[in-house]
Structures are given as C-alpha cells and as structure tokens.
Specification:
By secondary structure, the chain is α/β, with parallel strands linked by helices. The chain has four domains: 2-124, Tetratricopeptide repeat domain (Serine Threonine Protein Phosphatase 5, Tetratricopeptide repeat, Alpha Horseshoe); 182-213 and 222-245, no CATH class; 267-415, Nucleotidyltransferase, domain 5 (2-Layer Sandwich); 418-625, Rossmann fold (3-Layer(aba) Sandwich), CATH 3.40.50. The protein contains 24 helices and 16 strands. The strands form four sheets. A six-stranded mixed beta sheet has the order 8-7-9-13-14-16, sandwiched between helices. A five-stranded mixed beta sheet has the order 3-2-1-4-5. β13 (527-531), α21 (549-556) and β14 (560-564) form a beta-alpha-beta unit. α2 packs antiparallel against α3, α4 packs antiparallel against α5 and α12 runs antiparallel to α13. The protein is globular and about 80 Å long.
Length: 626
C-alpha cells in the first residue's frame, strides 16, 4: 500500500510540474504523507519516500512562502540522506540534491547538506568497485567539491572550504593514499589488527581485474568472473576492520579525515595557492608556511566559462602547432595569431597578477633571480589544464610570473604530507631510461644526448643505471624503478582519453601504463623526470581527479616529479635535462622546492636559446610535488 501512495504522489508532482496546478501539489503531499505513515523505520524505501516528500514541501514553500514547509522539508532531506536503511548510492544522490538546493536556499542548511554529501562520497565511490567504475561514478558527482568550496567561501569559512576541496577532489587518489597510510600508532597498541589491515589494504591496492601483471605467471591469471567478487570481499573486509578499529579507545576517527591545520603543517617552502573555479567566479585560498590561518582572495573577473574558453584556445593552438607528440619538428611562422599567448595574458591579468599582488611579490621586486620565492599552485576544474607557471603579458616588461616566482603544482594538498627533503649521497641510485627507437613510433635521437647529460652529472655523485632501447622492457623498467631513488624516462608517451588508467610510456616491448605504476608502492623515492609528451595532461571529463602519468608516478611514491603539459621538441629535451641535473647536483638536495627551482633555471636557459615568445617550446615543462 505505501508503494502505491508513493507512485501516485510521483504522478501528481509530475503533473504539477507541467500544469502548475496547486491542487496537484497538495495531492502529491497528501500521498507522500500517507506513504511515510505506512512505512516502518527499518524499510529500505524510507529514505526515498522522505526525499520525495522533501521536494514536494519545497515546492509548496515556493508557492506559499510558509516557513513550516521549509522546516519540514529540511527534516525529510536529513532522513533521506542520513537514515541507515537507504542504499549508499541513493543516500548520496539525495544528499547531493539537497546540497544543490541548499546552496540557493540557506534555510535548508547548506553546511550540513554539503557535509553529508561529502561524508557519503566514499560509500558512493566504493573501494570494492573497479578503478574504471569509480572514475565513471565520479562523473555523476556534479562538481561537488567546487560547489561545496564556493558555498563555504560565501560563508567566510575558508578552512572548511579547503577541507571540503581536499575530501571531495582526487577521490581515487586519496583512497590509494589511505590504503598506503602508515599504521605505526595502531601497530604499537594492537599489532594483530594492524597486521590484518596492512594485509587487506595491500591486496586491495594491488588488485585490479582490468589489468593483468606485466608478465603474469599462470597462478597470477584471474578471470573477470573471479576478480569482481574477490575485490568486493576485500573491500568489505577492509571496511569491517576499519569499523573494528574505530571501536577502540583513541582510534575513534581512524583514519582521521585531514583537517586544515594538518594540511597547513605540510606547507614548508613558500605559499600554496588553491584556486577554486566556480560558475560565477574564481576564489584563491592561501596557506602560508607556519600559519594555520587560511587566507582568501576573490577573483570575480574569471569564471568557469572563461576557463573553458581558455582551454579551448590552448588546445587549438597546440593542434595548429602539432604539439601533441615528442619528436615534432619545429614549425616556422604559421601566419596566425598565437592563441597561447592570449591565454597566458588572460591568466596573468585575471588571476596570477592579483594573487602575486596579494602576496606582496610584485611590490618587492628586488629579489635576485637565483633566490626567487617558491609558490605551489593547486587548481580545480578546467584550470588544471592551464599553464599558470607561464602566465604573463609578454608585450610589457616585468609582466610575467616568471619574473617574480618559481612555480610548482600539486593535484591535492595531501601530496605535500608525504614529502620530505632528501640530501644527495653516493648511495643515491639514479635510473635513466631512453628510447631513441621504439617499434611503431618516430625516432627520438635526442634521448641519447639527454641520457649522456644525466650520466655525466651523476658521475661520482650517485650510482647510475641506464636502460636503453631493447633493454628497456616494461618489466625491467618497473623492477629497476623499485631499486632506484631517481628515475629519468626519455621516451614516447600517450594519454588514453577513453580509459585514462591505460595512459602510459611506450617502451621496447609495449606500454608501461598508469594502472601498472599505481599497483606498485615505491618507498623512499626522490625524483621522477618524465621527459616525454603529455605526461601531465589530465582527463577533461574528470579535471579534479588528476588522472595523468605525472600524478600516477606521484601517487606511486615519487614526491617530486618533472613532467610536460604537452609534447616537447626533441632538440630541447637534452638542454633542459642538462641544466636541471647540473643544478640539482650542485644543490645536493631534492624535496623542498629544489626540483622546481632547477627546472625554472633550465627553462630560463631554454628561453634564451629559442626566444621568449616560442611558448610552445618552453611552457610545457612543469614541476609537480615538493
């Protein structure tokens, strides 16, 4: 009987939406009320019936203006999202819709609504699902992180805005980090439980039904039919162990959601600037070293639409210059206005210059070039595809970011938590991989000179191993990466737009893809130099998930990564590598901004060689991490 009332209520509300007849709305509310009265607290459909009732009451409030309707609507939104009997996916969708409506109507409690949706997100993006399925589900979250952040900013709660961005972005990334989180404190008090958690999390981390091992033994082969249930059992077991841990004194919130003050402690070398890109405007959030207070600057001149246009202009410029694969030949004057220069000017005028002004960097312009301050960008939405590190008006002197700061990027603030400064020692081991000739791809003769520079700079300063051409198989490179602290990859690479986890580096016997890299958990690594094309090109469908080769390597355990936003000219790569390694070996440290500084120095030399306005050649090089 309650199901019939629910169905009839849906019919009435649909007719009300079409005809705007108040009688239909009243009938819908009457049906919803009866359905709820006849539904027990343990019924699985109770949350959905509360959700229907909440929407009908909200319509009635809009029609009548009676606050009681809004109060009752809020009560039912809570029940729809928080009642234990509902399926996690349904409860998340209820909370997401509640949050979207609350952002327009403050009496619906937007803070509670967004917090509920973000708390339910891990149940919606479930560890038991395949990586591909989790990424697919993330396309249904409707910019939750960005919208939640914007709402918190409007309420001047900047710490909460930062936390929400961190919890609702890079979801798969954060799940992987959670599986790798140290269990030292738990192990000292409850060693058996810690051992079980470590075992299950390790299996979950490396388990993937879509991808087989690089060279599988017969025992490693798992059919798709076996893989799904096995992964789900592991996820259920992991969640049960977490629940058991949280029953223990002192571990009630294990693993703890990262708070703003914890994130602030990870900021050591210069400010981190988080730029939230919302439909209506952008906002910058600032974290300064030694300061737990989160700063804020509104950027009203730049909107989501402008960001999308800038991305479109950038993509058109790259295609016109054929800058999508390493080994491209340098084109002469193409006879068209370079849209890339226009993009850099737009970024400078609307975002970067106001940020540098706010930080006081433009006023204080007497800093020697070798001691420029370091700034780390954490970007959202389509901004993640734009070259903030090169923003500027290149028709005016002293009007570009390059003149004032050294730039790095991070996909999420958690990337800084695992980083630490590492001093160079002769025990340091450097792996260099080069593919001058790769079956099925154009030759890259510059890689030979590039690796010669790496070898020369590491001589007598670190152990060095070089794998080239037929030596550089996928299995050999992965195994060598585990044994070495630094890795330099000079080869072709590609971004798979259909399945980002299949993006990878082209080696002698095949592709070393992102999923294979992510299945490894490298420990105590230092630097990865990805001298290939598109190693930091993300997925436009999921801009906030950092699905690219550079982030995969970062996630796998390399806290500092040099990568490229698009293809590099083969003749330029040796120069950049030469200058980067010269600077790093001179400094003797990596992990506290040194790699970003070395790249800045190297790109400055490249600009001198090719010309400042050859943007397609020097802009692609970026530093990610610490």
């Amino acid at each position: 009987m309650p199901g019939r009332h629910t169905s009839l209520g849906v019919v009435y509300i649909n007719r009300y939406d079409r005809l705007d007849e108040l009688a239909d709305l009243e009938k819908a509310i009457e049906c919803d009320t009866r359905a709820l009265a006849l539904t027990s607290d343990s019924h699985s459909e109770l949350p959905t019936r509360h959700f229907n009732y909440a929407l009908s009451l909200l319509d009635q409030y809009h029609h009548s203006g009676h606050l009681a309707c809004l109060t009752n609507s809020l009560h039912s939104f809570r029940k729809a999202s928080q009642h234990f009997t509902g399926a996690p996916r349904d409860r998340f969708h209820h909370a997401l819709q509640w949050a979207n409506l609350a952002s327009e109507q403050s009496l619906l409690n937007p803070i509670e609504a967004y917090q509920t949706a973000i708390d339910l997100l891990p149940q919606f993006i479930w560890l038991g699902a395949t990586t591909e399925q989790r990424y697919q589900d993330l396309t249904l979250t409707e910019n939750l992180a960005v919208n939640a952040c914007f709402t918190a900013i409007q309420l001047s709660n900047y710490s909460l805005a930062l936390e929400w961005l961190e919890h609702a972005r890079c979801v798969v990334w954060n799940q992987s980090l959670m599986l790798r989180s140290p269990l030292d404190q738990l192990h000292s008090s409850y060693p058996d439980l810690a051992t079980q958690l470590l075992s299950v999390s390790t299996q979950l981390q490396s388990f993937s039904s879509e991808i087989r091992p690089i060279q599988p033994a017969p025992s490693d082969l798992v059919t798709a039919d076996q893989a799904g249930p096995q992964r789900r059992r592991l996820a259920i077991g992991y969640n049960n162990l977490l629940a058991q841990t949280r029953q223990l004194l002192g571990f009630e919130t294990f693993p703890k959601p990262i708070q703003a003050n914890t994130l602030a402690h990870a900021v050591r070398d210069g400010p981190v600037v988080v730029v939230n890109c919302h439909t209506y405007r952008c906002d910058a959030l600032f974290i300064l070293p030694g300061n737990e207070q989160v700063g804020h600057l509104a950027l009203p001149k730049f909107t989501l639409e402008k960001a999308k246009q800038a991305c479109s202009d950038l993509e058109l410029s790259l295609r016109q210059q054929r800058l999508r694969e390493r080994g491209v030949r340098v084109l002469g004057n193409t006879g068209y206005e370079d849209r890339l220069e226009s993009v850099l000017n737009v970024l400078w005028t609307n975002i970067v210059k106001p940020v540098l002004d706010h930080l006081g960097y433009i006023v204080c312009n007497d800093v020697p070039k070798e001691r420029l301050p370091h700034i780390t960008w954490c970007l959202t939405g389509p901004l993640t595809f734009l070259p903030f590190h090169a923003a500027g008006n290149y028709n005016r002197p002293q009007s570009s970011i390059f003149d004032y700061v050294i730039s790095s990027y991070i996909p999420a603030l958690t990337a800084l938590l695992a980083s630490s400064s590492s001093s160079l020692s002769q025990n340091c081991r450097v792996l260099a991989v080069g593919q001058a000739t790769t079956p099925g791809h154009s030759p890259l003769p510059g890689t030979t000179q590039e690796l010669a520079h790496v070898k020369a700079h590491t001589l007598n300063k670190a152990e060095y191993l070089q794998l080239t051409d037929s030596q550089a198989t996928t299995a050999a490179v992965l195994d060598a990466m585990e044994q070495h602290d630094w890795v330099h990859l000079a080869c072709h690479a590609h971004q798979n737009v259909d399945d980002p986890t299949q993006s990878g580096f082209h080696l002698h016997d095949g592709t070393l893809d992102l999923s294979a890299i992510n299945r490894r958990s490298f420990k105590d690594k230092t630097l990865a130099f990805l001298s290939a094309c598109q190693t930091a090109t993300g997925d436009e469908k999921l801009p906030d998930e950092a699905i690219h080769l550079a982030s995969g390597v970062l996630m796998a355990g390399y806290p500092s990564v040099i990568a490229t936003m698009w293809s590099v000219v083969d003749d330029d790569a040796p120069l950049v590598a030469d200058k980067v390694y010269a600077q790093l070996m001179k400094n003797g440290k990596v992990g506290n901004g040194e790699a970003g500084g070395a790249l800045h120095y190297a790109v400055a030399e490249l600009r001198k060689k090719v010309g400042m306005k050859e943007f397609g050649r020097w802009v692609p090089y970026i530093h990610i991490g610490s």
